[in-house]
Design a protein that fits this description.
single chain, 349 residues, alpha/beta, eleven-stranded mixed sheet, five-stranded parallel sheet, binds adenosine monophosphate, binds magnesium ion
């Protein structure tokens, strides 16, 4: 199958109409959202959604998120909206937040991995909204990467992973947030964050007074426990290189990374460092990439997946990444780094 990449320009409906037709006929289309690129299919068709799992190589028990562009689409897919969920929708939709809610019988098991709940998001990206409206369907869409790889934040990343496997990629330029949506389980009495994102714990607490965080988010799973978002149990975001996150005081982080880099290079390994802008001059690796300024966690979030992919492009064997405090957007950034590193975090204070 040939994969077309169509740039979506304002006022040009042609690419959107083509994409909507593919979706209505049961095919796949990758499209931009404010978080990452999604791989979309008709969310009411089990057969169409099956193609998503096949194209990505995604395990079948890892459910998909349904995307809507109008609150009027909710009753079709969700049978109950608890009061806290309503508050969250009013505050953060359209935007980078997914709510877990009880599903209707119309939502196929293929979407939910057999769960009685469904993840729903109303994205703010104009191309995502226009596509959902044109298709006139809830669109099931996980991130448009091969399973296990960093999520795509540019159309070129989607093409790299899915070339020949899908008919169309809508190119809307780079994604603004660059990290996947905050997932909140809104089915119980308390809002529980299953995956952190740009809608932070602090923002949810300011609205509701309280927010819990699933222990899997910080890698604190007791043996035998499973995360409440099934996808969080899988290896994710991993470049081909080994990734080590180093966190602590500035001097110790720099010294540790440089000492380890020297050892690795002596063994013939190619080393890349993901550093904050303030520290980048201090490293002696083969490649040093700037994540952005320490104070600007939005920038760090937006560049993280892109730079993990860049580490592969330069052929790094070992990647060292500076760690962040787990507050504000730092919780989401550390959650992704933890996964990319397979839990390998060096605390050097
Ligand atoms: P992705 O769109 O690739 O970011 O993956 C969707 C994420 O949403 C995965 O981590 C899923 O486990 C999670 N998810 C989707 N539906 C549910 C649900 N009903 N309950 C809990 N987590 C869900
Ligand atoms: Mg994903």
């Amino acid at each position: 199958m040939k994969t077309d990449v169509c740039r979506v320009l304002p006022g040009q409906a042609e690419a959107l109409e083509k994409a909507a037709k593919i979706l209505q006929e049961g095919g796949l289309v990758a499209f931009p959202t404010e978080t990452v690129y999604g791989l979309g299919a008709n969310g009411l068709s089990g057969d169409a959604c099956k193609k998503i799992y096949e194209a990505k190589g995604r395990p079948s028990d890892n459910p998909l998120i349904l995307h809507i562009a109008d609150l009027a689409q909710l009753p079709q897919i969700v049978c109950q909206v608890p009061p806290k969920a309503k508050q969250l929708m009013e505050a953060f939709w359209p935007g980078p937040m997914t709510l877990i809610l009880p599903k209707t019988a119309l939502v196929p098991d293929t979407v939910t991995g057999g769960l009685t709940t469904v993840g729903v998001r109303f994205p703010s990206h104009p191309v995502a909204q226009a596509l959902i409206r044109a298709a006139n369907l809830p669109i099931a869409a996980p991130s448009a990467n091969l399973s296990g790889r960093p999520s795509p934040t540019e159309a070129a990343h989607v093409l790299h992973d899915l070339n020949g496997k899908i008919p169309l990629i809508l190119d809307g330029g780079p994604c603004e947030v660059g990290l996947e949506s905050t997932i909140i389980d809104a089915t119980g009495p308390e809002a529980v964050i299953l995956r952190p994102g740009a809608i932070t714990k602090e923002m949810i607490e300011a609205l509701l007074g309280r927010a819990e965080v699933d222990p899997a988010v910080m890698g604190q799973m007791a043996p035998g426990m499973t995360p409440r978002a099934p996808g969080m149990k899988y290896t994710h975001y991993a470049p081909k290189a080994n990734v080590t996150v180093v966190r602590g005081s500035r001097e110790k982080v720099i010294d540790t990374i440089n000492a380890r880099t020297a050892c690795d290079r002596a063994c013939g390994k190619k080393v890349a460092v993901l550093a904050t802008e303030e520290n980048r001059q201090n490293y002696q690796a083969d490649n040093v990439f700037s994540l952005g300024r320490q104070e600007d966690l939005c920038q760090v979030g937006a560049s993280l997946f892109l730079l993990l992919r860049r580490c592969d492009e330069v052929g790094a064997d070992q990647v060292y990444a500076e760690g962040f405090l787990e507050q504000g957007e730092g919780l989401a950034i550390m959650n992704r780094l933890r996964k990319a590193a397979g839990g390998e975090i060096l605390e050097v204070d």
